[in-house]
Amino acid sequence: MKQEKDVRILAYESSCDETSTAVIKNGREIESLIVATQIKSHQRFGGVVPEVASRHHIEVISQITKEALSEAEVSWQDIDAIAVTSGPGLVGALLIGVSAAKAASMATGLPLIGVDHIMGHIMAAQLKDEIEYPALALQVSGGHTEIVLMKDPIHFEIIGDTRDDAAGEAYDKIGRVLGVNYPAGKTIDQWAHKGKDTFNFPRAMMEDDDYDFSFSGLKSAFINTCHHADQIHQELDKYDLAASFQAAVVDVLAYKTIRAIKAYKPKTFILGGGVAANQGLRERMAGEIEKLADKPKVILPELKLCGDNAAMIGAAAYNLYQAGKFADLSLNADPSMELPYAETMLN
Ligand code: KG4
Ligand code: ZN
To answer: What residue ranges line ligand 1, CB within 6 angstroms?
Structure first.
């Protein structure tokens, strides 16, 4: 039997506050992954400062390109394509990765692949297990909260979206009220496990006949509760506050996603994005799916691959490579790229 040739992709991710490179074999195997985080530089501002992010990306990108190749024990001759996140994200931050990838493509003659960041988050699942299609993903991060239907590895359709804040953004905003450093999600998640859901915060849009979300009402209810307590010099239990907030977020996410799974009957369910690291959400989704008569396979990506990283971009790029979807040197950063990108760019 003829042995298929391995496909090795060097991938770049620089859409926000992590600069990352990776070498991925056949879209499934991580040969190297380097993540240079800038979180400490942004913490004192309480969020990501775009200019600071771009500067850090420039400082490390050449070095971590070399590190990704050396950690994978490969040279440029062993690479088949160069992939990069081209959107969505911070425009200045994206441009650093896109420029580095274009320069590498021009210098080596290797093909270039532009990858949607959200497609990347979802494809972190492919680094753990085989995705069977059609698949359905709950993609929850600092910038996005979406239910995505995938008929194959490159065609995605958003069937539910947030009307206001993303789930991760809500975690970060209420974290600030509790004095937790940015990004607050992980700490709030840990606190939630030590408290009880005693505040009964609102669960928005549960009755609506769609797959959309809203988190701004919950965020406001949380902030009002804390401010009111402050005014009357009452101390609230931070663990109960965290548990109550998390219960409201997880209830809504799980309820709408399970409804979508029942309606669309996917073969695989994927949790993706930074908030996919949330223990409460992981346990709840796995538990609810277990109760279904018609259960999809569940893929919860590895914790270290939930946040931004280039391995997920390399995994998604492999699928585009197989479909012959290459970019040329006109590839540009698109800060507000949306997943129908799959429709417009891929046809
Ligand atoms: O995917 P990501 O790294 O960046 C974006 O593309 O936005 O997601 C970052 C977000 C932050 O809002 C962070 O607070 C949240 O993911 N996050 C969590 C957890 N770990 C990270 N939220 C809830 N629970 C966690 N364990
Ligand atoms: Zn992300």
So the answer is: 16, 121, 141-143, 168-169, 171-172, 183-186, 189, 273-275, 277-278, 307-308
